[in-house]
Amino acid sequence: MTRKFQIYAGLAALAVAGGGLYILSDRHAGHEMAKRLTDGAPVILPQLTANAAEGQGLFAENCAVCHGKNAVGTEQGPPLIHIIYETGHHGDPSFYRAVAQGVRGHHWRFGDMPAIDGVSEAEVGKIIAYIRETQRANGIN
Ligand code: HEC
Question: How far does the centroid of ligand 1 lie from the alpha carbon of residue 50, in Å?
Fold first, then answer.
């Protein structure tokens, strides 16, 4: 093995390790943030896209009674700006399903979520945009 090769191999290993550390610390930051949110700290409100801003209104009308203003949760329902509802764990289909069919209580002790009448799929799409943009602003991806 040449000396030059050893140096390149060493640099490559460092880059891989550094990337891994970066990803870990990023995820960790998300968890810390979510923990902070559940401790009642205020949600950071991002500048919403037009679509998400419409979703915010729809959410206030149809979901906030249980999920709370800015989706921080109430006595009737969980916060959606929470690490549990990041895209990797509750992807967008889980939102369409929740609204159309309701949800059996499984993560919390709030009981079941009923199906929500009068909210179209297109409207759920806007609500999802609102939730995802707000999640990202709070370190939840
Ligand atoms: C009557 C109260 C209530 C209303 C209104 C309500 N939810 Fe829920 N929702 C709940 C509860 C309770 C849960 C938690 C169930 C559990 O324990 O996992 C939940 C869970 C969810 C979940 C997680 C689904 C899963 O697969 O775990 C999503 C997404 C959701 N709600 C979206 C919405 C949206 C969007 C609206 C408005 C269109 C809405 N909810 C309105 C009570 C409500």
Answer: 24
Q: Kindly state the percentage of the chain with pLDDT values over 90.
A: 69
**Token code pair at residue 44:** 């950071």
Distance, CA 47 to ligand 1 centroid (Å)?
Answer: 24
Which distant-in-sequence residues (6+ apart) come within 8 Å of 32 by Cβ? 139
82/78 Cα distance (integer angstroms): 9
Q: Does residue 83's CB lie within 6 angstroms of at least one atom of ligand 1?
A: no
Q: Which pLDDT score is estimated for 16?
A: 54
How many CA atoms are closer than 13 Å to the CA of 61, on its beta-carbon side? 13
CA-127 nearest atom, ligand 1: 35
Cβ atoms 45, 70 nearer than 8 A:
yes
Rounded distance, CA 93 to CA 62, Å? 18
- What are the tens digits of pLDDT across the range 20-52? 444 444 444 445 545 445 555 689 999 999 999
